[in-house]
Amino acid sequence: MMSVAARSGALAPYLHSTKHAVKSLVKPGAKDLAPAAAAGGIRLAHTDIKIPDFTDYRRPEVTDPNKSSQDSSDARRSFSYLFTGATTVVGVYAAKTVVTQFLSSMSATADVLALSQIEIKLSEIPEGKNMTFKWRGKPLFVRHRTEKEIATEEGVNMSELRDPQHDKDRVINPKWMVVLGVCTHLGCVPIANAGDFGGYYCPCHGSHYDASGRIRKGPAPLNLEVPYYVFPDEDTLLVG
Amino acid sequence: MKGIRGISQLSTRLYAAQAARKRRFHVAARTGQSLAQPLAGLKLSPGAAHSLKDIHVTRLPSGLVIASLENYSPASKIGVFVKAGCRYETPDNQGVTHLLRLASNLTTKGASSFKICHGVEAVGGSLSVTSSRENMIYTVDCLRDDVDTVMEYLINVTTAPEFRPWEVSDLTPRVKMDKAQAAQSAQIGVIEGLHEAAYKNALCNSLYCPTHMVGNIQSGHLHQFVQNNFTSARMALVGLGVDHTVLKQVGEQFLNIRSGTGTTGAKAQYRGGEIRLPSLSSLVHSAVVSESAAASTSEALAFSVLQHLLGAGLHVKRGSCASSKLVQGVAKATADPFDVSAFNSSYSDSGLFGIYTISQPAVAGDVIRAALAEVKAVADGGVTAADLTRAKAQLKGQFLMSLETSEGLLEAMGTQALVEGSYCSAEEVSKNIDNVSLTDVANAAKKFVTGKKTMASSGNLIKTPFVDEI
């Protein structure tokens, strides 16, 4: 009863007052007697917003709005992943290259590295002759040995040696013997073609080395050091 | 023994089942019967008489009334109706209902202000408060699946508000904003003034906070008002698109916070007076009313029919209101633009009925007098049966169409549940409208003509008569 009588007529809306605390989905311009914004929150439903046309930026498979995008989703996804994966690999490789280049710039310069090796023309050394070169600040002996010397050295008994090493182990090519010219006793430079064993003799304390650079007599404990060397070709020796 | 008896019972049961099946087969085999019509000759058990689509109303022992309708709608609406309108304000807390209306999103014991707002927004719901002179209505609407979430917030807001002092004082600018917006509407000004002039107490309170109380309503006032008025016996929990058992459970568990009837409101005393609100507006709004009947009486229905007989607003958008008696009468008095409609408002113990005019300042007096003359003509018996039929049809139409929206239906269910504890179906109300006779309407008009008038006018009042001059 009361509902009928109480609220009919044109002035019915003015007989009560409404306040919205939270109002979702209000069309802008909706009829409300006191349309103050709801204190809690108000959400407007705009129906006049136009979404721009993005066809220029779409892939060809998804330009048709009536076709499901799931049909082409596998192809699109695998293309995107492949492209991303390949770019990542290339990027990682490029990054690694850049980093190593920067870091290697801090290592030794080419001129310094060049000093670490020496190339010797073997044709200039006559047989039986010992030549001395400066290598890494140390004297380097290159001896063109005669057949007799080779045979002698190969026939030496191991038990006689203070530092037993067979001649085979000390040379790559028996014709050429390459040792460092630094006495293992206290570091003097031995004299070539001197001493009792046909090799070297250190005048500082009297160490005798043979033609293979092994210590035979004297205070030195070890044989003359054999550096790392290779024969890039018949006529050249590369030490270091 | 038992076993044998059991077997015999089994045989009878089997026989009964077979017989029932045979009957069903027989009935269903009737050709030509549409499956949309109920089967004839089928006796329903008493428990099945209620279909889900009826409005269920239950009154709990605490006095709380639960009403619900399962309309299978995807959106649900729940309302808590409280008899805590502005008529229950006392002279020392005038305006507290206005603040209550604004305080629905403040912190409660179970949820902070932010949580309420965020939680309701998260499910896409709405929370709002409507207050009239008699009732306060807290409404939430949401999707059907989210009812539990928003119900929690609704219960928190209605039963466990905290009214933190700093939050309440933050409401003052919103009160001022509300008042400023209400002041923009001349109708609100006139109607508030009308009630102020017509009554000595209760119904004279305004929906909006009086100027002298803005900023002076504290948290304590709000707490006290809620304590005194938000009691179970004065509340109704109404739902659309919710299960009745669920609502009952919620009512029993949560809305039994305050028992008892709270403070009884005073009976409204009509005094009849005048209020004039001069302004620079180019239109004069004027309302002349007299005391009518309380809402629950049949006299109130007669006044409603009379209202539609005289003219209660446009029925055709931007139309000329040609069928309205008042408009026809006033059109003879002036050629300037005007509007006139019958004003009718019923409350639980009183009511106001009269005319509301909007006119140019120079002809205000003529318009008012012409409108009143029309009502006098009705009182003197100048109403035809065709007019009455039209008025009844218009009233019925307006009422039934108001039930079409979920807001209207919820309000109808809620106000009826709150006042009567039951729901009158639309058919019943239509029947009651049809039963209004010509004499009832004429008596109603006579009551207006002879009653003590109250008048409220606003605008440029140079040519507006006083209440004793009309």
UniProtKB/TrEMBL annotation, chain A:
Compartment annotation: Membrane; Mitochondrion inner membrane
Domain of life: Eukaryota
PROSITE patterns: RIESKE
CDD domains the record matches: Rieske_cytochrome_bc1
EC number: 7.1.1.8
GO terms for MF: 2 iron, 2 sulfur cluster binding; metal ion binding; quinol-cytochrome-c reductase activity
Primary subcellular site in the record, as a coarse category: membrane
A cellular component term, taken from the record's GO annotations: mitochondrial inner membrane
Bilayer topology: Single-pass membrane protein
Ranges that cross the membrane: none
Cofactor(s) this protein requires: [2Fe-2S] cluster
Comment on bound cofactor: Binds 1 [2Fe-2S] cluster per subunit.
Keywords in alphabetical order: 2Fe-2S, Disulfide bond, Electron transport, Iron, Iron-sulfur, Membrane, Metal-binding, Mitochondrion, Respiratory chain, Transmembrane, Transmembrane helix, Transport
Pfam families: Rieske, Ubiq-Cytc-red_N, UCR_TM
Additional note from the record: The Rieske protein is a high potential 2Fe-2S protein.
Similarity comment text for this entry: Belongs to the Rieske iron-sulfur protein family.
Name this polypeptide is given: Cytochrome b-c1 complex subunit Rieske, mitochondrial
Species this protein is from: Perca fluviatilis
UniProtKB/TrEMBL annotation, chain B:
GO cellular component terms, A-Z: mitochondrion
Name of this protein: Peptidase M16 N-terminal domain-containing protein
Domain Peptidase M16 C-terminal per the UniProt entry, residue ranges: 217-395
Domain Peptidase M16 N-terminal: 66-211
Pfam families: Peptidase_M16, Peptidase_M16_C
Organism of origin: Perca fluviatilis (European perch)
Taxon lineage: Eukaryota, Metazoa, Chordata, Craniata, Vertebrata
MF GO annotations: metal ion binding
InterPro entries referenced in this protein's UniProt entry, alphabetically: Metalloenz_LuxS/M16, MPP/UQCRC_Complex, Pept_M16_N, Peptidase_M16_C
Signal peptide extent: none
